[in-house]
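Suppose a colleague, Dr. K., hands you the sequence of a protein chain of 503 amino acids and asks what its three-dimensional shape might be. Before reaching for any lab equipment, you can write down a predicted structure in token form. Begin with the sequence itself:
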Amino acid sequence: MKTDYLRKILAARVYDVAIESPLELAPAISRRTGNHILLKREDKQPVFSFKLRGAYNKMAHLTPAQLARGVICASAGNHAQGVALGAQKLGTSATIVMPVTTPRIKVSAVSARGAKVVLHGDSYHEAAQHAKALAKKGGLTFVHPYDDPLVIAGQGTIGMEILRQHQHPIDAIFVPVGGGGLIAGIAAYVKALSPSTRIVGVEPMDSNAMTVSLKAGRRVTLPHVNIFADGVAVRQVGRETFRMCQELVDEMVLVDTDETCAAIKDIFEDTRTVVEPSGALALAGAKRWLAKRRYKGRTAVAIVCGANMNFDRLRFVAERAELGEHREAVLGVTIPEKPGSFRALCELLGKRSVTEFNYRIAGADKANVFIGVSVSGRDETDRLIAQLDRAGLKAVDLSDNEMAKLHVRHLVGGHAPDQGGEQVYRFEFPERPGALMNFLARMGSGWNISLFHYRNHGADVGRVLVGLQVPDKDRAAFRRFLRELGYDYTDETRNPAYRLFLR
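The predicted structure, expressed as tokens, is then:
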């Protein structure tokens, strides 16, 4: 199998549209980690993503009759731009089916290249089903974004370039994983020529179809995925890519949203380029992998796979980057409600930079303070909490608490005087025009809403925190309502941030 793909990669037609992207040292992050970290800059491609390689290689192998009928694909954006550019180059028509949640910048870029855009569904899975139906109806050739040998071979040219550009030993290559086409192609080439180089796939913790499938020994379909890193948000990996990854991929690494945002900042500081979340996944995974093993002096390559970032999303990224790098701690601190206690708390914080300070009286004898404070890492957070504890102040670390970071820090007010039967839930739904009103309509009016918080974070997922007063006799009906609502949700009724600041 390796030899077959090696031949396909060497013969791939990609350079009609793609450049040989640079392999650059990331000096700042290399110094900070004590390793030699190289960035493969696929964000510099004409469509700001690696996807044009595989798309064009597939299309360049179509017959004249197939090209005359036209091509179609489903994509969250980057593959779509590759297909649109390929269609321009080859003189054929292209129809692109994109989820309605696709960032506007990607939709505009596809339309600008003359392709017909059809918005359908909330996920790639739904868009792909619609695209295949349209392909069958119109006799169009479906260009798969990852599960096609010619597409895989086109992406594999990245591995070929890496080994040519860096002719010294490489300890590991980190690759973002969605459907698996990129990592399958790179692994096929690299493992054939440099079998000692580890191939490490990186996925978001809440969009981890390849990790789950490799552990299960079969392709698993996820019930839902988080689309913050929309370029890798697939519910099921490809059949061929899964087979190849079982044989060629050494391990998988999962990273969270904060780590991804921190990696976006790292890349910006080293390159002055803002990449999209999926474009920063590989670096986030490399940082986690190197730190966990306490490695120093290693050579690691991270694939920067794309830079199609919606400008509005930068607000969310900037807010979470410091937490992802563990340079900000979010704490809930209970202090005595008496003169001088607030000043004493400030003195304990010392010269640390305070990024947020929310105070609300909680009763006659105590008050709860929500604090964001700059730190040098988790160790300093632990030392600060221990210092507060020695001073008799109870502190809770909320740095990994999604409800605290998404909602509580933006809420103004305090504890409700009577919240009998209150149940607090955090919901997520696809963010698009009218989504909040649709959410409210589906909520109905069966139970009294005692708390509600929504904020547009600039992401592709809308997040709402809701408090509902549900009598004991209605608990079964309430659980049924949650199942039928159709949105992802988390029960936050026992969340310490809620109990400190809202209950």
